[in-house]
Amino acid sequence: PNVKKISSHISKKVADRLEELFKEDRAAFESKWDDIKIFIEYGMMSDEKFYERAQKFCLFKTVEQKYFTLEEFKEKIKPLQTDKNEKLVYLYCSDAVEQHSFLAASKERGYEILLMDHPIDSHFIGFIEQKLENSTFTRIDSEIIDKLIDKGDPLSSKLDKEQEDALRKIIVDSTADKEKFTVKFEALAVTDAPVIITRNEFMRRMKEMSATSGQNFYGEMKDHFELTVNANHPIIGKVLLEVDPAKQHQLIKQSVDLAMLSQNLLKGEELTEFVKRSLEVMNG
After folding, report:
1. Distant-in-sequence, close-in-space partners of 127: CB < 8 Å, separation ≥ 6
2. Taking CA 81 as the corner, what is the angle to CA 115 and CA 150, rounded to the nearest 5 degrees?
3. What is the pTM of this model?
4. Computed over its alpha carbons, how large is the radius of gyration of the chain?
5. Best CA proximity match to 254, nearest among 240, 270, 241
């Protein structure tokens, strides 16, 4: 019991000092955030009383290098990042370079994106998600842009069920690792990509947490991705009208490879073939 009292006393002293530093010179506190965040986040997850006090000075960092307290960020994103069920959606990325295409699309919508690039962040996200009322954290590459924050305003699809089934067969026949992907169709804007590959938020998060905690159950599971076909994209319509199976295959394969490239999944022989095919297309 004495050890717990001492620990609690130290925790209070640390929290008091951090809050004091935050209030005295916020700019200086923000400049040190990258160095101290791991200790603060770990303390919040380990000690409930520290969490209660740390809410005042724990910061969220965006990809724009701006810092917000939990309450400040909540109020900032509420107008645009509340979904049809009145749930607040905190969007984040773990690598602004690798996830750039998804980041760019999110920025075009005016969304604020958090940068969560430390190994502890996968654990902290799960923790803070349970603390914040009616809120969820979603990585920007876990879903197509229109589904990241579902507003309940679906577009109409240009494809019927028979056309979707025909396209699904072409896609499966054109995909090397068929078991890695689940194919689905969505009615998206014509300006969106013809094919988009995303990673399931729950499974990816569990694998990341397993990797940092030493647990192997989720870590040993194979990666699985959703391959979303934009039912309204002109290229998809062109595939259906194409009578030459070889050209159909080329159009689909090129679209899928571009989607894989955006997720850093195209490597080795597949990447070499993509470059070769791209040159052939450019040469007519």
Report:
1. 44, 45
2. 110
3. 0.83
4. 23
5. 270
